[in-house]
């Protein structure tokens, strides 16, 4: 049976905008986050506290967090790869921090400049300090369904990193298809394997839509028992360390699917469509949501 309700985490302001080649003005980012909050999301990934040399697009995270209209009960999340990132996130009064690793060694090296084992040791103090400060802690596992450098990724590698993230104290772990290569049966297999590691209520599906499989993969994950999904308004994004990758599945398309399935999200699809139109115009990009384009053309 499908869940009656799912949580959709909006990652466009982070995963989407981190990949924009052109500079996105800070006020545009702030308006994007505020519009998304008004649309009803309970969790928005709004910033990254990473090296500005690695990802210059995210260098204004503190300014974004300082100016968004904070709403009660809303979880604003940010990526924190190390202690320096955690301290910046705390100063910015972020509610949830995200440690991000990978199930493939090559991607770990390219993305965060260390091995998987080294990353876990680097995350350990970050996780401990986050917990001590009462922050929510999320882990992200890239390349769970394939790696741009290594190809196939063994499911045991995914299980292993998910287990280590949970051991560090993560409340939730994101199982990410960084390059959008997974297909539905594979997705069901990976989540079935992960169900032997943890209750699936603690895992989320983070699907990029590079190969057009994301909605099918979400349906497969739903049927396996996953009830948290990440999505990016207007399908914004790509990944700076995954050549050829495109954005996350468009939030509008996921909401439309959920509506059709009778699954409650608490999010206003029309408001998200308007927000997708706003951000696509603001950054001068075609709207990457099929539902958004169809509705806006009416
Ligand atoms: P490093 O070079 O090994 O680390 O980078 P370092 O400690 O030697 O620091 C290098 C420089 O960065 C130093 O500056 C530090 O001060 C500075 P310098 O002395 O050269 O002037 N620095 C920082 N500055 C600001 N905030 C910080 C910070 N840390 C160091 N927190 C590091 C290691 C992890 C820092 C680097 O590799 C990095 O920042 N990587 C970020 C990669 C990234 O953001 N990737 C995109 C997000 S992940 C993603 O999109 C995948 C996801 O969506 C899931 C999926 O789809 O797969 C989550
Ligand atoms: Mg991603």
List keywords for this structure.
HMG_CoA_lyase_AS, hydroxymethylglutaryl-CoA lyase activity, metal ion binding, 8-stranded parallel beta sheet, binds 3-hydroxy-3-methylglutaryl-coenzyme A, EC 4.1.3.4, alpha/beta, 8 strands
Main beta sheet: 8 strands, parallel
Ligand list: 3-hydroxy-3-methylglutaryl-coenzyme A, magnesium ion
Calculate the mean pLDDT score and round it.
96
**Number of DSSP helices?**
12
Helix content: 40-55%
Description:
With 298 residues, this protein is an alpha/beta fold. Helices cover 43% and strands 15% of the residues. The protein has twelve helices and eight strands. The protein has helices spanning 12-16, 26-39, 61-67, 83-91, 105-112, 116-132, 155-167, 184-194, 214-224, 251-261, 269-283, 290-296, and strands spanning 7-10, 43-48, 75-79, 96-102, 136-142, 172-177, 203-207, 228-231. Strands 1-8-7-6-5-4-3-2 form an eight-stranded parallel sheet. α3 (61-67) links the parallel β2 (43-48) and β3 (75-79). α10 (251-261) runs antiparallel to α11 (269-283). The longest helix is centred in the middle third of the chain and has 17 residues, at 116-132. It is globular. The two termini are 34 Å apart. The site of 3-hydroxy-3-methylglutaryl-coenzyme A has 29 residues, from α4, α5 and β5.
